[in-house]
């Protein structure tokens, strides 16, 4: 598709119109005569989009426009200035786009420009290749789980196929095979949605090039590509415009890639991906372009939308409301997809996810290589994001350079977050055993329950003696949250519960707190501890999200609700968060376990002892989840008795619907 500029058969009027519009978008700009300090990635698509538009429509104005930007790019002595000139993202982007332009319109260029473009591609490709060889085992050359690796090798591969440099394409192909074998099969991505949309399109580009140039089809190799749309889908906020911002996310609107949606939809027959592609390239396009903090952004993908759109693929609006991605320990549950629906996203895993963490440790031990670059990973295991009524209510900090657990909806021990935090590469050089994980996962699509327990004790400084720090999160069918945090240490500690919001919470007369964001709201009620101290304070997070533009700085202001216990060797927080101001939560009296009821929905928990005793309910279980008009659900249960009637009695723990 890409090399030959040949899309799947069938009409594509919307994609053609997008291509022509993008091809003309820079006509009022003057190409730079010298290298700007900021990134020049955008120069590549400024040349390739009009080149493709000329191939499609034959308008000489598009040829002239492509020529302007080609001449500007090839006369720069280096690609990239502020960070790793010739060896990183600027060079990767330009190698890809200018190689395609050379392939598509090279014969139409003036002889001098054509020769200069070929020379420049050979020069930059050689520089990229030599750096990849020299830096193997350290930076992006073998950082298999992150976007710099995928972009730089895809750029090298594009140039290699266009120029006939087999040495380049073979090295890039070997790397691609390793990446596909090592990426998580569940399709999740630890760098977060923003870097998913920035980097994963280049994996698809490389796969497209490989199949067209060599006849090798690796689209199903490893499983990541076939499942990754589902990961992206379930990190979409209700209403589809915004994204959940786990990991490094410049903002909440930089998550869509219409071209990639179309390619995944066509390759794997995913109607929801086709539907999302139509939405992203239509209704959402210009707001995404205007409000996204990531450049070049969504507009330059017009060439991919044109070449990857397959009109034969049916489109269907998403309906699935529950998903769990085991490698990243990521649970996502929602009440629906409309603007006012409620979504929670809850995660816990080792740095980079289970497969990356374990494989990188082997590379370190066996080769002395550092292959897991963790710059975009956060100390956020056990944290969650809550979206409801079209607004973010419990929030993440987005992008940060000095990463801290205190910036997330997490817990502190004696005021301390994760061990070895407060730095950019927050997981670098820490012990292999310092891992978080999820257990006791329940997803109930038929009636809406979701449950998981995050084990995060290992993430804290061993000197604190934390033996247990388990967070259980329950999402009810109507979209309410119950959180139970259980902590144990070798000595008395102060335990602090953190809740991050975009605006300050309001104290209610009954002692609850109200989260407000525009017209949206949620009530927070903490039943335990009863003797804790609660304060609200401002937390500012300052970051530079790109080394290629050193002067760029983002400041995010969080409002942090802190609830701290008296010093004790054991800590317990029982919290309910109810979106809107409807039915309030009440604590359920329990002889064993802990309970919260919202009237029609009741949550009973005992994630450690697994013994629940209350009026009408006796269970040996981690959780019993009840509604007034439906069957009960249990987690890790061996016995359940309701109103004196035994409804479950099994030898092995059972999770799911009873009856």
Structure description:
A hairpin with a 2-residue loop joins strand 4 and strand 5 (about 390-395). This protein has helices spanning about 15-25, 45-55, 60-75, 90-105, 110-135, 145-165, 165-180, 195-215, 225-235, 260-270, 270-280, 285-290, 300-310, 355-365, and strands at about 320-325, 330-335, 340-345, 385-390, 390-395, 410-415, 435-445, 450-455, 465-475, 480-495, 495-500, 505, 515, 520-530, 535-545, 555-565, 570-580, 585-590, 590, 595, 600-605, 610-615, 615-620, 625, 635-640, 645-655. The longest helix has 24 residues, at about 110-135. The strands form four sheets. Strands 18, 19, 20, 21, 22, 23, 24, 25 and 26 form a nine-stranded antiparallel sheet that branches. Strands 7-8-9-10-17-14-13-12 form an eight-stranded antiparallel sheet, with no helix packed on it. A five-stranded antiparallel sheet has the order 1-2-3-4-5, covered by helices on one side. Helix 2 runs antiparallel to helix 3 and helix 5 packs across helix 6 (about 145-165). It is of the alpha+beta class. It contains 14 helices and 26 strands. The radius of gyration is 26 Å and the shape is elongated. The chain starts with 12 loop residues before the first helix and ends with a strand. About 30% of the residues lie in helices and about 25% in strands.
């Amino acid at each position: 598709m890409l090399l030959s500029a040949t899309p799947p058969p069938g009409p594509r009027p919307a994609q053609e119109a997008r291509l022509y519009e993008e091809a003309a978008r820079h006509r009022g700009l003057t190409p730079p005569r010298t290298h700007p300090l900021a990134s020049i990635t955008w120069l590549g698509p400024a040349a390739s989009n009009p080149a493709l538009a000329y191939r499609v429509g034959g308008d000489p104005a598009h040829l002239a426009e492509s020529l302007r930007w080609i001449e500007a790019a090839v006369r720069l002595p280096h690609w990239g200035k502020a960070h790793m000139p010739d060896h990183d993202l600027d060079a990767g982007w330009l190698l890809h786009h200018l190689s395609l332009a050379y392939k598509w319109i090279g014969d139409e260029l003036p002889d001098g420009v054509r020769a200069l473009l070929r020379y420049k591609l050979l020069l930059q490709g050689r520089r990229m290749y030599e750096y990849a060889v020299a830096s193997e085992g350290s930076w992006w050359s073998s950082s298999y789980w992150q976007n710099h690796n995928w972009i730089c090798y895809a750029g090298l591969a594009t140039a290699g196929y266009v120029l006939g440099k087999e040495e380049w394409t073979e090295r890039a192909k070997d790397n691609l095979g390793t990446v596909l074998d090592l990426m998580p099969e569940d399709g999740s991505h630890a760098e977060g949605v923003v870097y998913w949309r920035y980097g994963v399109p280049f994996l698809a580009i490389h796969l497209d090039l490989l199949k067209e140039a060599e006849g090798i089809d690796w689209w199903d190799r490893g499983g990541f590509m076939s499942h990754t749309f589902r990961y992206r889908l379930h990190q979409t906020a209700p209403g589809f415009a915004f994204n959940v911002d786990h990991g490094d996310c410049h903002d909440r609107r930089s998550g869509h890639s219409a071209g990639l949606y179309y390619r995944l939809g066509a390759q794997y027959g995913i109607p929801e991906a086709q539907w999302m592609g139509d939405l992203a390239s239509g209704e959402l396009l210009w707001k995404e372009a205007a409000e996204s903090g990531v450049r070049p952004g969504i507009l330059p993908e017009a060439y991919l939308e044109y070449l990857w759109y397959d009109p034969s693929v049916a489109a269907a609006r998403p309906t699935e409301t529950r998903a769990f991605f085991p490698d990243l320990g990521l649970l996502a549950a929602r009440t629906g997809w409309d603007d006012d629906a409620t979504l929670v996203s809850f995660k816990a895993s080792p740095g980079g996810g289970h497969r990356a963490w374990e494989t990188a440790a082997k590379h370190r031990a066996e080769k002395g290589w550092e292959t897991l670059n963790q710059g975009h990973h956060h100390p956020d295991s056990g944290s969650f994001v809550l979206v409801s009524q079209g607004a973010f209510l419990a929030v993440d900090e987005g992008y940060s350079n000095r990463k801290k657990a205190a910036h997330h909806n997490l817990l502190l021990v004696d005021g301390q977050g994760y061990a070895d935090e407060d730095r950019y590469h927050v997981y670098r050089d820490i012990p292999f055993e310092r891992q978080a994980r999820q257990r006791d996962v329940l997803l109930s699509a038929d009636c809406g329950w979701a449950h998981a327990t995050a084990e995060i004790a290992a993430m804290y400084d061993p000197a604190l003696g934390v033996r247990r720090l388990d967070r259980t999160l329950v999402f009810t069918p109507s979209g309410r949250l119950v959180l139970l945090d259980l902590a144990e240490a070798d000595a008395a500690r102060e335990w602090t519960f953190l809740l991050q919001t975009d605006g300050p919470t309001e104290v209610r007369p009954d002692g609850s707190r109200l989260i407000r964001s525009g017209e949206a709201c949620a009530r927070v009620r903490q039943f335990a501890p009863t003797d804790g101290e609660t304060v609200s304070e401002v937390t500012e997070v300052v970051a530079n999200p790109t080394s290629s533009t050193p002067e760029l700085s983002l400041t995010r202001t969080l409002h942090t609700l802190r609830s701290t216990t008296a010093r004790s060797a054991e800590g317990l927080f029982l919290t309910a968060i109810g979106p809107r101001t409807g039915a309030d939560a009440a604590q359920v009296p329990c002889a064993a376990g802990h309970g919260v009821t919202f009237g029609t929905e009741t949550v009973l928990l005992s994630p450690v002892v697994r013994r629940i005793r209350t009026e009408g309910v006796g269970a040996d279980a981690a959780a019993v989840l009840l509604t007034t008009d439906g069957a009960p659900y249990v987690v890790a249960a061996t016995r359940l008795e309701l109103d004196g009637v035994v409804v479950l009695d099994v030898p092995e723990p059972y999770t799911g619907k009873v009856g």
